[in-house]
Write a structure and sequence with these properties.
225 residues; membrane; disordered C terminus; Peptidase_S54_rhomboid_dom; two-stranded antiparallel sheet; serine-type endopeptidase activity; Rhomboid family intramembrane serine protease; Rhomboid-like fold; mainly alpha; protease
Length: 225
Amino acid sequence: MTYGVIAVCCAVFLVSPVSGLNPSYGTGDALLAAQSAYFERWGVIPAELMSGDPGTLLTPFTALFVSGNWLHLLGNMLFLYVFGAMAEERLGQPEFILFYTVTGYVALCAYAAANAGSDQTLVGASGAISGVLGAFLFLFPRARVTSLFPFLFFLPLRFPAWIVLIFWFALQWLAASGAGSGGPGVAYLAHLVGFGAGFLYAWGRFGRGARVKSSAAATEGESKP
């Protein structure tokens, strides 16, 4: 299911006006207008969602499969690729896709509730993927992952997952504290809510006794950058 979600997100992006690869949307102003209409149609507009309009209730779901640009898509899919497969293996396919969808939906709704007067469109799978990260932290805290840290000159180094994910969470927290709920295209609050929801779900679902330690097999299974 992890690879299926990645494939769907990539396919949706490639045929959308955002990729710039679909000639049917034109160029220049026509393309920009198509992109704006695309985000408004499939993304979350907090003011509209919080207004109670039934027609907007599905937008937190559709927004999970919409990306704002190439960097947004690639960044999200990389995190899902690195952390998703092991979380899915632990949860099972049906439960994983339900967990992914519900966590993402809740994260986007939380952002909308905190920014109920905003007309800024929100798109992306970040909330759902943050949920996967939270679940991974509980289930595989000692699994080693290869990471690139800017302050370490982007050297590919292997760290326990708990170090990488807590560092990531701290960055989101600092960004949310310093920039409200995030700048254009970055909803840090949705990241925090998704991460917290994912961790709490894994804790409630499996409990302390079922936590998976980073065995040799787990270590080998999660070595992607």
